[in-house]
Amino acid sequence: MTEPFSTLQDQSVGEIAAQLPGASGVFRRYDIDFCCHGEVKLAEAASKRNLDLGELNAALNALDPGATPDAPQETEALIEHIQLRYHNVHRVQIPELIQLSAKVETVHAAHPKAPKGLADALRAIWGDLEVHMKKEELILFPAMRRQAAGRLTTPIEEMRHDHDAQGVFLEKMARLTNDYTPPEDACKSWRALCTGAAQLRKDLMEHVHLENNVLFPRFEEGA
Which positions fall inside the Hemerythrin-like domain (predicted)? Predict the structure, then answer.
């Protein structure tokens, strides 16, 4: 990063996540939405979560700004990374989670903490996400690869809108899984479901972050 860390509180969480390697992990740990609402300033994000801004700043200051980013920075390589690491992974993990959730909901239907409705929520987001990813793969990403002369603001706005819906889903999944925490008497399948759902949260947040905060701004008006 080129700016002193003391100014972090005046930057948006999306900017920080895009510029500072490891920041996204810090934000996940403090349950800060850096992907779908990356425009929020750090100080405001801390206030909304009733977090100590000094503690949050210290956690970010402890990161190495010279560390290798988790994702490639060149546009072509970044697009390839998004497709391989996230699109392809979602196509495996979400159908598996749907089956696992349906099993847990059926077997533990009488349990007061059963994740009732999770399978339906996963089916709904999977239908929307598959359409979303195909639009990117068939239309948006090829246009970016061609370095289209015109800006791609309109299709990107549509993708950002989809991302907002994905953020709502993540909030719902957290509620239905008790923040990905199984009860003490949970079976192995229920525990695996919570672990898998937590991994989906991590993957989807990173996926949306890389698009919203890193890739998309390169092709929007004013870029």
Answer: 82-218
Quote the tokens at residue 46: 């801390």
Smallest CA-to-CA distance from 41 within 50, 30, 32 is with 32
Summarised one tens digit per residue, pLDDT across range 86-120 is 999 999 999 999 999 999 999 999 999 999 999 99
- Quick one: 84 and 189 in the same domain? yes
Neighbours of 162 (CB within 10 A): 19
Burial of 7 (0-12, 13-18, 19+ CB in 10 A): exposed
* Whether 30 contacts 56, CB under 8 Å: yes
> Whole domain around residue 24: which residue ranges?
5-61
Q: Are 223 and 217 in contact (CB under 8 A)?
A: yes
Q: How far apart are CA 210 and CA 166, in angstroms?
A: 14
Domain shared by 57 and 150, yes or no: no
How many domains, the chain?
A: 2
Say whether both 22 and 90 belong to one domain.
no
Q: What is the pTM of this model?
A: 0.90
The rounded distance, in Å, linking the Cα atoms of 120 and 101 is 9
